[in-house]
Write a structure and sequence with these properties.
This protein has 196 residues and is α+β, with helices and mostly antiparallel strands. It contains five helices and nine strands, in the order αββββαββαααβββ.
Length: 196
């Protein structure tokens, strides 16, 4: 078992488990920040679906705005904020696509309509109106009527953020907060504290 002082994923799991018991809505929600090819920052909420010593996993449309940003710049940042716990975690890392078999397995675990939605939505593109999307949903429901057999779209799948820096922030009285950072240097984790 890893020493929690040497690897931040142990502390992350402790905090995440506590958030999972206390946050009313989506304790796995995280803000993903990316940089576009014209150096503009973009942020949006996505859902953490898995994590381990290798990194943090989420799924999306590869052709979405976030996907385009990722292709132009692999450096990303995550932020988990748990208001009820008065805690947040910042994660910096390099992002990469998951193996197709991993994306297939997760895609097949999703609700039928979520899988149909992945086919119907050209994420981040303009819609004439809501009816256009609803018509596409009906089209793909007819194309894939077998709820047990909806293939994963080639433009949809998972990403893994290989983390190299994690900051654990904890609220303290009088705004004298606790900020503990783990940073990977020469394949070893270093731990230090920042002023609030």
């Amino acid at each position: 078992m890893l020493d929690r002082n040497l690897n931040p994923i142990i502390q992350f799991k402790d905090w995440f488990d506590l958030a999972s018991k206390n946050e009313i809505n989506d304790p796995n929600a995280m803000c993903l920040s990316t940089i576009s090819n014209d150096n503009k920052p973009h942020s949006r909420m996505v859902l953490l679906k898995d994590f381990n010593e290798k990194g943090f996993v989420f799924y999306t449309n590869y052709e979405s705005n976030k996907g385009k940003d990722i292709y132009s710049n692999k450096n990303v940042c995550l932020n988990f904020h748990w208001k009820s716990l008065l805690r947040q975690i910042r994660v910096e890392g390099i992002i990469e696509k998951l193996h197709p078999e991993v994306s297939d397995k997760y895609f097949n675990s999703r609700h039928y309509l979520s899988r149909i939605g992945a086919w119907a939505s050209n994420q981040s593109t303009l819609l004439e109106n809501r009816e256009e999307l609803e018509n596409k949903i009906e089209y793909f429901k007819k194309k894939y009527p077998d709820k047990e057999n909806v293939p994963r779209p080639p433009y949809w799948g998972g990403f893994l953020i290989n983390y190299h820096k994690i900051e654990f922030w904890e609220d303290k009285p009088h705004r004298i907060h606790q900020r503990t950072v783990y940073e990977l240097k020469d394949n070893n984790w270093e731990q230090y504290t920042l002023s609030p």
